[in-house]
Design brief:
This protein is an alpha+beta fold. It is about 35% helix and about 20% strand. The strands form 7 sheets. The protein has a 5-stranded antiparallel beta sheet, sandwiched between helices. A 3-stranded antiparallel beta sheet has the order 1-8-9, with no helix packed on it. Helix 8 packs antiparallel against helix 17. The relative contact order is 0.10.
Length: about 525
């Protein structure tokens, strides 16, 4: 009897232990492994359609998203789950606006695929094997900063131009993206079941120096004036806050722009054109730095000047022009061609070209930025007539708005070199002085006078304290009535005493820097203020 009781006790202990083990196991699976097991269960009943390659996202300096801002509708098609092909093709044709023949070919391949939805009204119909879903688009129809970013090939794999190409290796890091839908035990899609987006690698994040809000505001200013040209706004330390080019292109309509006559893909902010009188800032710097020109010198301005048998006219040259003597400051204020040609021919072409190179002309300004051109500096040696042309920013000289912005930033920050940058985490080179402080101070006074008393008065804001220089650059082309076609420029900085911002405005065929570019500069400065 005792033996039996002992065996029963052992059995009870084994059963109790087994029960306890099961309870612990169930608790562990429920509390700690439940979510994982549920996911594995769902994974076993998922089918996927590939969307393409997911690229890293771009943000502005304040953490505002630049890409993937808006959602659009897409359709995922699973041919193996379609039981009525004719109805499915009609439905897809209505949704995607693609031809039935094209859709038939895609279905015959048998592999799941995704298409963008063009006609949202067609969603009232429901067909087995077709799922309509929403996802963030990389770009939207009203996308800003198109030229800054560049674009990607249709499958999202390769960046073309701009930041998309400059940071392509990093932005590709997201891998492939999929839309996943739940199926039943027979492998058929469960209607109404939620879908989810997934990708096989974590995508990267790239932060730009741009200010999204400022970029949008400047684009609206350019669109309001309906002009072709460019605007660059940069902090004096080199951070590019806005880069605008017009005309622009829509990201979703690239092929429609290929034959456009106004070159919408051209980023005019980094494309070289004739510069004109803005280059007189460089001529003044070169003259003062050479020691052959001083602020006390007086120069005769007769409205025109002859050099090597060529007559160079001032912008205000006319019958009855009264000859006058001007200081360099007065010559800058009134943008005297005659005076700056005298300065240029006195110091020589080599001195002019050397100063132009020192402040960034003739070279790329943003390291690794695709699409930026270097412009053109005349090759030495220069004949006396070429020197005269260069001194006033004409002839073979071509420069980009970005290069002009860099040059003006060097003046604004007291003579230190600047390397413009678009990536917020890009390494900044240690500051090193490239212009004597005395030379810079004298040029700053000239640019203040140009706005207060000279050709740049239209750039002055309500709060004042703007300095800068106008330019009306001859293109070599003329209108039907024989008038010169000029590009309009204004480049300057704000505030005058402790500059923070530099801005360059270039308007193609804008006639006058003081009459067209300077007022747009003023609008932009008042947005910043």
């Amino acid at each position: 009897m005792a033996f039996l009781l002992g065996r029963l006790t052992i059995i009870r202990m084994i059963l109790a232990g087994s029960l306890m083990f099961l309870m612990i196991r169930v608790g562990y699976l429920s509390l700690y492994m439940g979510e994982t097991l549920a996911e594995e269960c769902v994974e076993a009943h998922l089918i996927c359609a590939e969307l393409g390659y997911e690229r890293g996202e771009l943000y502005d300096r304040n953490g505002v998203r630049i890409t993937n801002r808006n959602e659009s509708s897409y359709v995922a098609v699973f041919p193996s789950d379609i039981d009525d092909r004719e109805t499915a093709i009609s439905y897809l044709a209505e949704l995607t606006m693609r031809s039935k023949n094209e859709l038939e070919r895609m279905l015959k391949k048998g592999a799941p695929f995704c298409l963008s939805v063009q006609n949202i009204s067609g969603q009232a119909l429901r067909v087995n094997g077709i799922v309509v879903f929403r996802k963030n688009d990389r770009y939207d129809a009203r996308m800003k900063v198109s030229h800054v970013l560049g674009y990607v090939q249709e499958n999202g794999r390769v960046g073309i131009g701009g930041v998309e190409q400059m940071c392509d290796a990093m932005l590709r890091g997201g891998g492939k993206e999929y839309v996943q839908v739940v199926t039943d035990g027979a492998g058929h899609i469960i209607r109404g079941a939620p879908y989810r987006m997934s990708n096989d690698r974590e995508k990267k994040r790239v932060t730009l120096t741009l200010d999204w809000k400022l970029q949008k505001a400047i684009e609206e200013v350019m669109d309001k004036h309906r002009v072709h040209g460019a605007v660059v706004v940069m902090r004096v330390d080199g951070d590019v806050l806005a880069m605008v080019s017009r005309p622009t292109f829509r990201m979703g309509e690239l092929t429609d722009h290929l034959t456009a006559m106004d070159a919408p893909f051209l980023n005019r902010a980094v494309h070289p054109v004739a510069l004109g009188s803005v280059f007189k800032v460089v001529t003044a710097m070169a003259g003062l730095a050479s020691g052959e020109v001083t602020m006390r010198d007086k120069w005769e301005d007769a409205g025109r000047i002859e050099v090597a048998g060529i007559t160079f006219h001032g912008w205000d040259d006319q019958e009855g022009y009264i000859s006058r003597e001007l200081t360099l400051t007065e010559a800058m204020a009134h943008s005297s061609n005659s005076v700056f040609i005298q300065v240029g021919t006195k110091i020589g072409g080599a001195c002019l070209v050397d100063m132009a190179r020192r402040v960034g002309f003739g070279e790329q300004t943003i390291a690794g930025y695709y699409g930026e051109e270097t412009g053109n500096l005349p090759r030495e040696p220069l004949y006396i007539g070429e020197v005269a042309n260069l001194a006033i920013g004409q002839g073979e000289l071509l420069a980009t708005p970005m290069q002009v912005t860099k040059m003006m930033a060097i003046v604004a920050n007291g003579g230190y070199d600047v390397m413009p940058r678009l990536l917020l985490n890009a390494k900044k080179d240690p500051q090193h002085r490239i212009l004597d402080a005395r030379v810079v101070r004298d040029v700053q006074n000239m640019l203040a006078s140009a706005v207060d008393d000279g050709t740049g008065q239209a750039a002055q804001t309500k709060r004042g304290q703007v300095s800068g220089k106008t330019g009306s650059a001859e293109t070599g082309r003329k209108t039907s009535d024989g008038k010169s076609i000029n590009h309009a420029w204004f480049s300057g900085y704000f505030p005058r005493q402790a500059p923070h911002y530099v801005c360059t405005v270039m308007i193609e065929e804008g006639k006058s820097g003081g009459g067209v570019a300077a007022p747009i500069f003023r609008e932009i400065m008042e947005i910043i203020q």
